[in-house]
Amino acid sequence: MVLKTEVCRFSGLKIYPGHGTRLTKMDSQTYLFLNAKCKRLFNLRLRPAKLAWTTQYRKAHKKDQTTETARKKKRTVKTNNRSIVGVSLEVIQKKRHEKSDVRAAARDAALREIKERQRKAKDGKKGGKK
Length: 130
What we know:
The protein has about 130 residues and is mainly alpha-helical.
């Protein structure tokens, strides 16, 4: 059998069936209180976060350590360097450690070579048609 419990508007504690008082205001707002103490303090407009026995106080002052979830440690991803098909690990390491200006010069030389090949192929096509 499951008991339908409600929560006190002031203290935040559980109210079991057959207990508590309900206050309904003129604008049809209803408040449920555990006992007359909670109702009286609510009517006095006291803040529950300033009274040590309320759940709001305990939450504001971090008293409920059991409900706080501990942060999980992130696992660091360990990367292993492996060789790729057609390229050995030593060649990869050498290319990684060479300076950017050397890499740029090699790239420029490769681009020049490709452009020359394309020019020769174009000239060959033009010469064959005439």
